[in-house]
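User: Some background: our group keeps a shared notebook of sequences we're curious about, and every so often someone picks one and asks for a predicted structure to add to the entry. Today it's my turn. The entry only has the sequence so far, pasted here. Could you supply the structure so I can complete it?
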Amino acid sequence: MSIKIPKEYIRSLVLISIVFLSASNVSAAQWEVGSDQLYTTIQSAIDNSHTLDGDIINVHSGTYTEDVIVNKKNSAYKPILVKEWK
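Assistant: Of course. Here's the predicted structure to add to the notebook entry:
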C-alpha cells in the first residue's frame, strides 16, 4: 500500500522549511565603531557581552591603533564580522 502526497503539500513544506532555516540570520545585531559612535575601539565592540555569533561590527573611517583579539566561542558558521562602514 502506497500513500500519495500531493505535490502542493510537498512544495509548501519545502517553502516553510526554507523560511524557517533562513530566519536565524535576522537576529544579527550591528555594532558601530567610530569616534562619535557607541564604541570608539574595535576591541570594545568585540568584548561587549552582547556581541554574539553572526553579529556585524561596522567600523567607521578613522585610525585605529590596536591589536584586536577575539576571545569568544564563535561558531564557524556564524562568525562575528568586522567590516568597513560605508
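Suggested note for the entry: The helical segments are 7-22, 42-47. The mean pLDDT is 82.
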